[in-house]
Amino acid sequence: xxxxxxxxxxxxxxxxxxxxxxxxxxxxxxxxxxxxxxxxxxxxxxxxxxxxxxxxxxxxxxxxxxxxxxxxxxxxxxxxxxxxxxxxxxxxxxxxxxxxxxxxxxxxxxxxxxxxxxxxxxxxxxxxxxxxxxxxxxxxxxxxxxxxxxxxxxxxxxxxxxxxxxxxxxxxxxxxxxxxxxxxxxxxxxxxxxxxxxxxxxxxxxxxxxxxxxxxxxxxxxxxxxxxxxxxxxxxxxxxxxxxxxxxx
Length: 249
Fold this sequence. Notes:
Helix content: 10-25%
CATH class of the largest domain: Alpha Beta
Distance between the termini: 18 Å
Number of strands: 14
Largest sheet: 6 strands, mixed
Shape: globular
Number of domains: 2
Structural class: alpha+beta
CATH topology of the largest domain: CNF1/YfiH-like putative cysteine hydrolases
Strand content: 25-35%
């Protein structure tokens, strides 16, 4: 578990980013797996969450993430809502998202009155989870600070042409976030299928820039290539989940 480095958030904003180290899970889930939906021993997950809880002011508001754009209100939420982002204005309410290649975003305003966490895979980005989160925070975009957590890096995130087209339909500048890979020929038809390496960090920065959010930090880690530090679903399939958490003190 690590505090967020190099992020000039207000003094009353607290944030943590977990890695795969420091827990009790074994095998493919070693060791600080926080996901209770990935096949790990439930008792191990419970213990891992207890270890995390010791660093927090309250239990996190966990989400059932569905690659959508719904934003839960952590101040009022009961249970585990279907949502891919959460925000809080009350002190001690912990917003959390879990990832293992998708991009986690932590957001706050410069006055320290509201915080949010968002889970953004490519489907969530296309679907507007960043826009929905910023809108729900109800703060002028120029007053926001955003941290981009560990995600699959631009040298490892291969996607089909339909992903590129979906982003470009929203913003033609998104083309800058895609680098072509050698075309693959199918055995049956001989047709070539174009694949692309996508920069999910750049795609998120582009979305934020269009909203007027300019102070964006982080974005230099790759879950896929650092197996010792990070879980990666694309690398391992059976794997754990890390958490990105933020709250007001």
